[in-house]
Queue: 2 jobs
Job 1
Amino acid sequence: MLNMTETKSIAEVEEQIVEEFELFDDWMDKYEHLIEMGKSLPFIEQKFKTDEFIVKGCQSLVWLHPDFENGILHFTADSDAIITKGMIAILLRVLNDRTPDEIINAKLEFIDKINLKEHLTPTRANGLVSMLNKIKAYAEQVKLTRSHKS
Amino acid sequence: MNEVLQEKKIIDVEQIRSQFPILNRKVNGQPLVYLDNAATTQKPQAVLDAIQKYYSEINANIHRGVHTLSQEATDAYEYSRKTIADFINAKSSEIIFTRGTTESINLVASCFGKKFVNAGDEILVTEMEHHSNIVPWQLMCEERKAVLKVIPVTDSGELMLDELTKLLSSKTKLLALTHVSNTLGTVNDVKEIISLAHKNGTAILIDGAQAIAHTQVDVQELDCDFYCFSGHKMYGPTGIGILFGKEKFLNEFPPYQGGGGMIKEVSFAKTTYADSPMKFEAGTPNIEGGIVLGEAVKWMKNVGVKNIAEHEHELLHYAIAQLKTIDGVRIIGEAKNHASAVSFLVGTNHPYDTGVILDKLGIAVRTGHHCNQPLMKRFNIPGTVRASFAVYNANEEVDKLIEGVKRAKKMLS
């Protein structure tokens, strides 16, 4: 669903998350926050938790369902691991309800600033890197489809 | 600790630990607790020194030159082969240097397949095999139009031996089986199984990757046809491993790869091949790895394989007992004969989550499916947390693991 109130830019949301995480002195508080984020967000509808929408990591699984309406991409997702879910929550806070161009151009450098980059390396094999690639691929795909139509 | 207990200790853990420089490092600000030894072990100073010595003093290509360095390097390489052969009670000609267990198994699958396997024949593996003891046989079966059959595992993580007996038929050409399960820690009764296979005229390959650092292996006593292991899981370097094969098979096998070093005479009309082990070692090998693996074996012999096994047995059973005191912990794999590794789950927590929090505490464990996807499917779990032990681990480290698991449980609940 398209949010008609004024939305913050990707940079603004990233800044907000960095400030939020700066409040934590030690890793335990930070991870507890991450776990809470993982628990509290509404995730994917059960009917989309199928092989069609699965992103297989070696360590954990991710499901990702895209929606495209009024030029805006909306994703719902889930994972079988709670820390991965927390990471999804952070990433979707930044990338959800954006135009394909915004998603394609997102650098996501804030992940480094909040010291959670270790979860976004291919060697972690938790499905998150593949999920990000899929998000970007969906954005490229809808952009291409639209430019063909116009 | 009181004196009586001190006296009973088989291993002076502090003295052993002092030989492993990496154990002094910190991870995430915490002293490293390394419990991922089934993946790879750390290396003692004697092994590190041997690597340095090889490159500083005798580096040269082997089996080729008449010059002194080449002779010295060749002697060291062949001396190491002999050391390893003695370690498992084999002949030097039956010891082939490979890149590791995986390559050893692939070599046998390829050569045995070409020579002995035809359409409709059967290869037996077990449900608890590592992927590297499944996939090479699948590839070979596909190529030879043979059939892969699987011996199932019980709820406690043991092989169903009566199923094994039923599955052995006149078509069964080879049985490939792990000595110790990398996930469950189950020690299979390989001697009994080898004897069953041989009575049926079936050849047998033992994946010894998880056994070689924890138990005394005697290939003659076992009477196995092939035994495979990796250097890096026994305090030696990575990229080097061993295939033991009985001469009668190795002599019959076609070469695995072509190249320098494996030939008798080359002409465009016909090339003849060297005898084993040279026949299977094409190209310049991992000379350093080969030599240093011999040093790792010597180091293990000095400590005593029996002492290592006893110490690890104590650690393992202490860890299992302590894990069981935590509410909601489920041990995956409770075979009567259990070695070196314990797999577990905490309530409904995902192993990845537990692993991430343990890492933050400086505790290195393995999480995931451990290259055992069919086994995970059989237990209907996404994976496990696995703690695996080596001779340098201490009871205090088990205590830290237990504290860590409790903390992870609290954070994730």
Job 2
Amino acid sequence: MPQGLVHEPIAKDLPRLVENRRSNQAIDDGPHDPQDYQHTVPQHQQVGARLMTPLILTRYTIVSALGKGLTETYQALRNRRSGLRPCDFEDVGITTYIGRVDDVEDVFLGGGATSAELERFDCRNNRLALLALQQDGFIQAAIEARERYGAHRVAVILGSSTSGILETEHAYNRRNPATGALPSAYLTSHRYTHNMFSSAHFVRTYLGLRGPAMVISTACSSSAKAFATAARFIEAGFCDAAVVGGVDSLCLTILYGFASLGLTSCAPCRPCDVNRNGLTLGESAGFALLEKSEEAGRPGAVALLGYGESCDGYHMSHPHPEGTGAIKAMHAALLRSALTPGDIDYIHLHGTATKSNDSIEDTAIHSVFGPSTLCSSTKGWTGHTLGAAGVTGAVIAAMCLTHSFVPGTLNTTRIDPSLCSHVMMENREQQVRRVLSNSFGFGGNNCSLIFGTV
Amino acid sequence: MELYVNGIGLLGPGLANWTEGRILLASESPSCEAAMPEPSASILPANELRRSSESVRWALHVAQESMQQAETDPREVTSVFATSEGETGVLDRLCTALAEPQRTISPTLFHHSVHNAASGYWGIATGSQQSSTVLACYDSSFCAALLEAAAYAQIEERSVLLVAYDLPPPPPLYAARPLGGGFAAALLLTRAPGPHNLAQLDLTLSNDLSEEATIMDDVRLETLRTRNQAAQSLPLLAAIARQCNTLVRLQYLEDQQILIRVAPC
């Protein structure tokens, strides 16, 4: 396998990358044998990738502004019903839209013999996580995995960017005016709410799992990278199965933070539109149960075929202008799955609808896939759900595979003519065998996942 | 799972770097309280160094030290960063601003608030485009990162830089999470032996909790170990420093232990 290393300063690579793009050579007209494809990837675009054994998504689910569970999500995608609404979160005074999940406020974490143990995790982020666990028989599937492999052999690897920070925001409003001290109830709940490990701690407690656990927090690539780490843990023998996914919920930090960067749109976001003017923030939680194919495989099952991770090494909040990090992540995912660009039927874009993300992602995709591979962004439906964007993309990819359906790009009326890849506005009914889903985050952190049927 | 340690970075109270730290960790005499060292993190360009948070500087300082020992090009190395609390100094300023009526927050402050700030700055400082994972697992964050780094080195056949770090949060958050230290440790791990090996590790994950996890004999270092997840690396670092065959048991969450057979190289 190629062990591509970056030997030259990145700046030296830029002219060659630009040259590759200008040559307008569609790589999907090129080699279709993965062995040959490996040799076509320029060394400076490689991060090194070994083959992986596909892992089955035995069960998966999602809750977002589109609804609770797979059926509601699919219906909203099919009927082009957006989940975005004018911002009505707390007393936020920003003119923007949000992808808010209904009824999170009514979720109760306790109940049963372990009520006290669970109630301490109470916060919007963990309520959203529980709402997702309760959909599509996920809890039952996780319990069956626990019984099949043993509680120690099932890992919980989730992604989140802000965890339960809303609790800390609220606590700062209730500081003691004389001493500045935070309320005592907050001090004891901090570990179970805002602390970054909180969501995985809650989920493994709720499901009675005792295997390896962690929360990956690499901003908007977090829950995509959870799939990669889980795949390595299964391969390394640290566990036999893993609950993967992620959760991020609305909070003041992200609403005011993205507004301060000038990245929030005053209208519902329009990914890849010529007049796009920023993103819409949302919240979601999603989970997948990952298992080895010999244990769980059945014809038609959805599998994780490959993953690719990289960094930009460029800037904290702006992607590398030539998309070199994104290119490396996509190449690595292809190499790991032994696929060529021509094998990918559809690319689920990170597609946040900011000027720079959509343009640079387009550059990167065109460089790897050429102009023909179908692409779209579903952020016009869900909003950008940050650390949960990766698992949201993963579950939508799974739906494409099982429903022979490809979503278009909602709210977009005219595709930016400067984009070179094949961005679809309209939904399509067509068989899809393999989907690549992109997630890119602050800190220049990138992850591409490839899903297919076995 | 067999691994080799090629470089170590260390920063904590009384532990200014690995060269001094290994002598202290290998010695039988009790350590004494010492001034908190200042990280230089000179790998960061001056303008980025000025903007970066204290925890970013701690993380990059030990990362840089471990890479220099191993004489490895940082652009060839994957990284795993472990921090339980992340950028608490930045979060305190954000939450304070959000509690004001105007809620005016600086864009720079916002993008410095992400849990992966140190990882992002490591990429900017080195130009590395290799994968970087940032994770949290409360007091087991170092252990979770050790598993992730070991799995990565084994499966992807690549050198992995593990950086664990945490600083005590500023008030009022300190009362919610009274961490001791600061503490930062970096380990450069490879699957294959090489010319710069400091130790060989054989790592397994065990459900057997019949033996207690390894603690530090030194009272001061043991207090540090129990009060900062990054200092949970101390029993492993001490075993490497002593240069003899040792079995180290690290507690991973409440349910498992990581067993590490440490052998000198």
